[in-house]
Known about the structure:
This protein is of the alpha/beta class and about 170 residues long. The chain has a domain at about 1-35 and about 70-155: Flavodoxin domain (Rossmann fold), CATH 3.40.50.360. It is built from 6 helices and 4 strands; from the N terminus they run αβααβαββαα. Strands 1, 2, 3 and 4 form a 4-stranded parallel beta sheet that branches.
Amino acid sequence: xxxIYERWVAAHGVIILAPTYWYQSPSPLKLMIDxxxxxxxxxxxxxxxxxxxxxxxKRIEQQGWDYPKHVAGRAYGVVVHGDVAGVEAHRRxxxxxxDWMGLIDAGAAAKLDRYIGYYEPYYNSHDALxxxxxVQEEASNVSRAVVEAVKALxxxxxxxxxxxxxxxxxx
Length: 171
């Protein structure tokens, strides 16, 4: 996870591309999301609590932890696909999470959910994806939208409108 966290921190933009498994993210993606708690305002320096010492962590939080959003301000795109059900809910869950983390969506073209091989057998689902040139182009558009958003962020033309608002419920 340390390597993944470093990559998130170094990135100017991220794209999550995932299959939908009965309305849900694959378990490795869900595990990463769960472990990204430090990026959402958790303690980025575990040396302050000397490992997992709950009393020390509580004391730090009681002293006024500000819940900094460590990966906020990066552009994002999401591509989810499935063959039966749940792609819309899956995409919304991922984009809601990324919004909560303070990332900036790269526009409507950067959020894609599609059915591929709808109600077809599993054994040839890769064939259905290979044949679907339109969905491949839509996924490329997600990448293009994120690239444009990153360029705009770097140039100061794209800003996070609510960046300076202080949440009355920071966690």
